[in-house]
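*** Residues and shapes ***
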Amino acid sequence: MSGGPAFDAAFRDRLAALVAWRRDVRRFRTDPVPEAALRECLALACLSPSVGNSQPWRFVRVASPARRRAVLDSFSRCNGAASARYADERAAAYRRLKLEGLREAPVHLAVLCDEATEAGHGLGRATMPEMLRYSVVTAIHTFWLAARARGIGVGWVSILDPAETIAALAVPETWRLIAYLCVGYPAEAHDDPELVRHGWQARLAPGALIVER
């Protein structure tokens, strides 16, 4: 049996740089993403691990202007409601943030979880059925890294009403919205995340997030 591929220190350094550069992009150029590059990223995403080998991710490419407008309308309503949750300076800071690239991004991808999938035969999710959705998140992250390695940016829009979005997409009722992704070439490049750069939230130190028992 082969021991598998070997990854040297140079590769590990480049992998670390890729992870660090996996920015949530909100500012896109409008020029198109090559179809071959997008398909390569999606194919790599479909190699992601999943509970029971269930592969529950469903990528929906949203090209219809009417469907995109419905998603943008949902964002506008939800964003207004979210802004109202904050007061004073924090509310003003929220309103200054750019939280989506829905108008500029050339590619929109809705990523959904097929919660009625028979693939995997239920293995590994009898006590934790949410593992299906977690599996979809692994595919999203794989797609994100694959895109970044090709110079393509990804932005995850979560300020949406899931029911409205699913209705706009006309997908099966057993599919659950996990992510709505804007995909395209970034208009800017920065070393720091946007929310750090604009003073919303600093990154926490790893020591604050890793616990031993």
